[in-house]
Description:
By secondary structure, the protein is of the alpha/beta class. The protein has helices at 13-24, 41-50, 64-73, 89-94, 96-116, 151-169, 203-211, 239-254, 275-286, 310-316, 324-342; strands at 4-8, 28-32, 55-57, 79-82, 121-127, 174-180, 182-184, 218-221, 233-234, 236-238, 262-267, 273-274, 292-295. The protein has a seven-stranded parallel sheet with strand order 3-2-1-4-5-6-11, sandwiched between helices. Helix 2 (41-50) links the parallel strand 2 (28-32) and strand 3.
Amino acid sequence: MNKKILVTGGTGYIGSHTVVELQQQGYEVVIVDDLSNSDIEVLDRIETITGIRPTFEQFNLIDAEKTDALFAKHNDLSAVIHFAASKAVGESVEKPLLYYQNNISSLINLLNAMRKHNVQNMVFSSSCTVYGQPDVLPVTEEAPTKPAESPYGNTKQICEEILRDTASAYPEIKAIALRYFNPVGAHDSALIGELPKGVPMNLVPFITQTAIGLREQLSVFGSDYDTPDGTCIRDYIHVVDLAKAHIIAAERMLEAKGKADFEFFNLGTGTGSTVLQVIKAFESVNGIKLNYKIVDRRPGDIEKIWADTDIANKELGWKTERDLDNMMETAWKWEKNLRENLIKN
């Protein structure tokens, strides 16, 4: 089996962790990233962890000619793991055309190049946002997708439809969409982790940035939801567990174990945690008291969602190994190392 894989968005949060896991399992990795939401120093940190520097190409995949040239240059790829996308929900509402262009055009360019250069397998970074607020919990893969709450969420739905139609029309193309719940945590080395540019959109970076003093206070949006403590429930999954699932998904196609040309799986722990439970876990495992305040609900927030992971566990032979405490411990270790050693003044 040829073991060379293209990882788009490979210097980003989930992408970089997946590159590390791929290299540690003997895969050769080519990264393409335009560095719009990541830093070139991530390559150095990947090399420090694995002892191998991945091949790196810098450009935006909406450039069809450069995308085609990439596949011509690396003509022995066995699969593509596609992370590269614009991903801020709020920004997508303000700049919908940017999101549709970036997220949809990049996928189409990749699929055209894959067909032309005989690369047959794609793992696609999708999201549980395709389910909206589910009618039944936990969420199974049989749950209906609902109208997206944002252009970002809509791009995930549209991209899945493109993959489904492409795999149906061209039997040589196989695709697996992985519908993530809420990735958090960081690599045990504290050399790679989540580094949002500007104001974080997600809870855990807000927690760690508040704990280290970058932010004065953490806002908890709403305390009157129909949940045990009134705060929203999410299914948090450690980014290393998530990264490993991408390799298993790629191998499922490479080994012809799939049951359809297009498949999709929920990736979560199967356990929901409230915002306050996450805060208390962080405080407990790290011995830090957080300054947080309950404020009004935030428009568009889903009340509660967590995954039914039975199908992913059974079909992929994958399950999460890390608990909420480990997520909070590694996230804090990363934040401290980042501010003390990694960010160049």
